[in-house]
Write a structure and sequence with these properties.
The protein is α+β, with helices and mostly antiparallel strands. It is built from two helices and six strands.
């Protein structure tokens, strides 16, 4: 489902993905995406359910805050960091402190 404004400009929508089974609601300004809400198929991972606010630099707010990644998540992000160093994939989902606690021991 796509949302249009009175001038016919796309301003958001409801989307599902084939590959990850996510459901998303997107809200756009006239020039770029302003907000996206994503719900995975299980609504939580090994680190629990949480609300996360992030921008291109990384996580700005998380409630409840994840202080330490689960062993499974930490292992996955260590693998990703070895394959694509410096891309900050962990920091796109968790606080820098939680990621450094995990990745500092890699």
């Amino acid at each position: 489902m796509i949302i249009y404004d009175a001038e016919g400009i796309e301003r958001g929508g409801y989307v599902t993905t084939d590959t990850e089974d996510n459901a998303m609601i997107r809200l756009d300004s006239r020039h770029r995406m302003a907000a996206i809400l994503v719900a995975g198929p299980d609504c939580a991972d090994q680190n629990g359910s949480r609300m996360t606010v992030a921008d291109k630099e990384g996580v700005k707010f998380q409630q409840p805050a994840i202080a330490a990644l689960s062993p499974a998540s930490c292992g996955e992000f260590r693998r990703i960091e070895k394959e694509a160093p410096g891309r900050r994939w962990c920091q796109k989902r968790f606080s820098d402190a939680a990621c450094q606690a995990c990745l500092g021991g890699s």
